[in-house]
Design a protein that fits this description.
The structure is a single chain. The chain is mainly α and about 200 residues long. The chain is built from 7 helices and no strands. It has one domain. Helix content is about 70%, strand content about 0%. It is globular and about 45 Å long.
Length: about 200
């Protein structure tokens, strides 16, 4: 169980630690990729199994990205005090890689594979993937939403991904939908220069 918390903690904090120490965006992004990927490979090998590219998760992911963009100016965000870094082509590529290949795995493993079941029973492994309870649904949706500065879009995303989990009864489609959402949003960010989304 502690592995889930450790991976989430490292994922959310390792970039900042390296950036404070080095003041180098490239080194900090590479460190995040290497360290988080290593932890995932050690403790969560099963999540590197092949993910089927199905239409529903792809549609859900694309829809999530559209919602993030469409409602962005309609509500106040949680303040984000990090300055927007000066990206170049290499750091853009690394940031995009993290958002589509690492973030979906870490966030979905923690939220919809572990947390949503742990809320139901401390012995989370005894809880089937995709089991619904109102308590676990509400808590994970709020957790996911408030973990993002764009909290309303995060809450909507949490609802959509939870519903996908309940429908498919497996975590793979949620990882795929999350990756598609981040890919579409990343393409929008790069093509329009809307770096504040990152």
């Amino acid at each position: 169980m502690w592995q889930y918390f450790l991976i989430l903690f490292v994922y959310t904090g390792i970039f900042s630690v390296f950036y404070i120490l080095t003041q180098n965006l490239l080194i900090s992004l590479i460190a995040k990729i290497v360290i988080v990927s290593t932890l995932l490979a050690i403790w969560n090998k099963d999540f590197f199994k092949r993910i089927d590219f199905e239409a529903l998760p792809i549609f859900v992911g694309a829809s999530i990205a559209v919602i993030w963009i469409a409602i962005d100016k309609l509500y106040p965000h949680i303040p984000d005090f990090e300055s927007i870094p000066d990206y170049d082509i290499v750091t853009i590529a690394l940031k995009l890689f993290i958002s589509i290949a690492i973030a979906p795995i870490v966030e979905e493993i923690f939220t919809r594979s572990f947390l949503i079941r742990w809320i139901i029973a401390f012995d989370y492994k005894s809880v089937p993937v995709g089991k619904f309870t109102w308590m676990s649904f509400i808590i994970t949706v709020l957790f996911f939403g408030l973990a993002h500065d764009r909290w309303l879009a995060g809450i909507i995303t949490g609802i959509a991904l939870n519903l996908l989990l309940y429908h498919k009864k497996e975590i793979g489609p949620c990882i795929l939908a999350h990756a598609v959402a981040n890919l579409v949003l990343g393409i929008y960010v790069i093509s329009t220069g809307s770096w504040y989304f990152w």
